[in-house]
Amino acid sequence: MIDLFIRGMIMLIFVSGSIVISYFTTRLIAYLAPFAAISEFFLWSGTVVLSALLLMGAAYSYVYHGFGAQADIVRRRPSAGNKVVLTFDDGPSEVYTQEILKILAAKRVRATFFLVGSQVDKYPEIAQQIVEEGHEVGNHTYGHITVPNSPPSRLAAQIMRTNLVIFQNAGTYPLYLRPPRGLYDMRMRRIAKLLGQELVLWSLSSQDWHPRATKDSVIRRVVERASGGDIILFHDSGSLLGGDGATRRPTIDALGPIIDGLRAKGLEISSMEEFMVYPPEVTRRASG
Ligand SMILES: [Zn+2]
Q1: Per-residue pLDDT reduced to its tens digit, 96-150
Q2: DSSP 3-state assignment of 124?
Q3: Which of 201, 251, 264, 278 can bridge 208 by disulfide, Cβ–Cβ 3.0-4.6 Å?
Q4: How far is the CA of 127 from the centre of ligand 1 (A)?
């Protein structure tokens, strides 16, 4: 009840705040404009458009970060001490996944791969290999969809179908769920709960998807910024981000030095399984 009240108040503050800001901004623009022929009608429509844009911005950042504590969404675990986790999204990929597996094996690191269902259908033996080599897998939807604007039936089908293809091909049920681009919503949180899966995002992106990413930029970013409790994001497939045939070469070249660099900083690279044992951040919310 109190929760609902607080949510209502937050909404009210955002709506009225954005209208007030937009009202004065359009007046200021009219005042500064060199011509005097701006009518009231234009000023008010300007106010409406601007406040709509502000609210859209607020809604967008809400989808990414939420307001207040969201204990069901795992981004980082400060209680995990010096432990960090490596995660790879969008695979399995025919070109890059096996190269990554080789490096992980040589460095004795257990990572987590968030698999795209359609990619598992294409490369089932690589999905199987990931699990056989001791890594964990998560669900990254079937077609790398944008969750918030998918209709309910599609969203549920995308998640359940991926669980099924992972289970059938890799012989394991994915305990983690990660929405593409980190865009989740209430429905996805409920589905995750229902299917016994943790919603796992990340706290440090290697930015390896960036078209100008290089081996050095990826190493520097991750090793300099990483601290205990971080979930670190990489990509092992180039086909879904940054256009067709985007290369994951910087990721592969950077991975070995990153593992060494993290260890040199005193960080321990742990599996998701070990990491999740640590309690989530203490939340402010007292009621269920
Ligand atoms: Zn992705």
Answers
A1: 999 999 999 999 999 999 999 999 999 999 999 999 999 999 999 999 999 999 9
A2: helix
A3: 251
A4: 16
